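Homework help board

Subject: predicted structure for assignment chain

Our instructor gave us this sequence and asked us to write out the predicted structure in token form, then describe one feature. I got the tokens but I'm not sure how to describe them. Can anyone check?
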Amino acid sequence: MLREWGVRIKLIQDCDVSAAVAACYHDEIDLLYGVGGAPEAVISACAIKCLKGDFQGQVYEEVNKNNLGTPYGKVLQLNDIVKGECAFACTGVTNGCLVKGVKWGLRPTTESLFMRSSSNTIRRVLTEHGN
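My token output:
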């Protein structure tokens, strides 16, 4: 049904945190729907709150490694998951959609992304590390 409406779908295997952040950070991505772990959900929700986006999640009972069970509990909203102000930080190890990975040259260089919900600021830091 979604494809009939002209929706483009991109399937991802890993990097669910960066994909969630990209949905609020890049114009060409409008929505992420997925299944992931609770730690990734909290990290993603922090970044999304810094970007003034929205997040909903629900806990699922795990039946086994290959199949999900049924959902239980209420649908959690962003402020249920992240209460109050928060911050998000990441540094690229490999190239991704948010930050570049380590660049090896005369001095190793990393790119980091820092965000704060209280000030709605986004900082990108390019760091050259000593030998």
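Reply (TA_rk): Your tokens look well-formed. For the description, you could write something like this. The longest strand covers residues 68-77. That's the kind of observation they're looking for.
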